[in-house]
Amino acid sequence: MISIETQFSIFLDNRPGALARTCQALAKDGINILALSISDTVDHAVIRMVTSDAKKTAKVLESLHATIHERQVIFMDVPNTPGTLAKVAQKLAEAGINIEYAYCTGGAEQESGYMGEALVRVKACSINHLDLWIRQGIPAYQTHLPHISGCDVSGTVEQLGPGVRGLKVGQAVFIAPGLSCFACEFCRAGQDNLCASYGIMGAKTDGGYAEFAKTLARDVIPIPKGVSFEEAAAFPLVFLTAWHMLVTRAGLARGERVLVHAAGSGTGHAAIQIAKHAGATVYTTVGSDAKVEKAKALGAEAVINYQREDVAARLKDLTEGRGVDVVFEHIGPQTWEGSIRVLAKGGRLVTCGATSGPSVPLDLRYVFSRQLTILGSMMGTRAELLTLTKLIGKRVLKPMIDTVYPLQEARAAQERMLARDVFGKLLLQPEPAGIA
Length: 436
Fold this sequence. Notes:
CATH superfamily of the largest domain: Medium-chain alcohol dehydrogenases, catalytic domain
Largest sheet: 7 strands, mixed
Number of domains: 3
CATH topology of the largest domain: Quinone Oxidoreductase, Chain A, domain 1
Number of helices: 14
Low-confidence stretches: 105-111
Helix content: 25-40%
């Protein structure tokens, strides 16, 4: 059986209302949109659609002065035997027909939607600071409304698009928060968090504050046996960020001393466990005495309440004046100068964020005279995420879940994060979840 569809790729100026005007123009001519996907950059949006009338669609789009690329998409059911695809390709070549791309499927359990995509029924979605920044507005992302936040998603596979292998409908999974092309020079080198088109789910795309989340199947990862949906949603972004900072960028070694700011934060509580796993001595800070014992339980050697103690002075006593080898920095101006000052000679400061602001003072004389290293870090690679997934499954590392909110209380959850009244992760749930 053979079916043919005409797929239109339309390049439009990335301005509010561009898609609405396109859809209205098509509707006015009685054209129904059967399938639609959108990708965007700062300058332009690319809309791919299949409609009920290809000829009329082409005329309407031309009247909008849009740049159009029209493609014939052919679906064939052929015997699943060795050599079948080669024979089809050879026949097309003999007819002078060029194949721009091809997908082969082997009978996925349930197929729906676009090639290579998966639809996940959300069981849990964690709150991250990025959710707050997206809501407030952030230059790095040109967010178009309506927008669905949520970077960390776990759930069950609801539907699979054509061409998906290795997943089953009903399978317990989580979605990798980091989105890469896996084709550019960085991705091919295994540095996919440096991808030219890198983005984060819930920021670059719609996320998990919903009952369902759609993504490419390659970004869907099975949950290890015995790990709950809540835990699977709580660890990916923060543990990946902390691992890449400490293990990959800073090269934290056994016996070294590390300062982790904000033990109660998502990345902070992850960093303490990862540093301890690496064999380091961990010092950390908290903003209230109520968090001290929780931080110690994670593996911190000493916990400093920055609200009533001088962090630099306390660390000087703890290290006998030497300082720490590594500072895990993710706060920004509020802690930056102190972070530089507590480093030992030859120390490394690794930073992933700017929660308290984007600009910091820096005395270069102090940096070069003490031979300090300042390292930037963002998210982590897919290989690192898979390593962490195994460690989570073995209970070597364990995300701490502070509170689980119903999805409709997302505002209350974000307000609580802003108030810093959290230790570990806050989660949203469309419905009660449980063990995967």
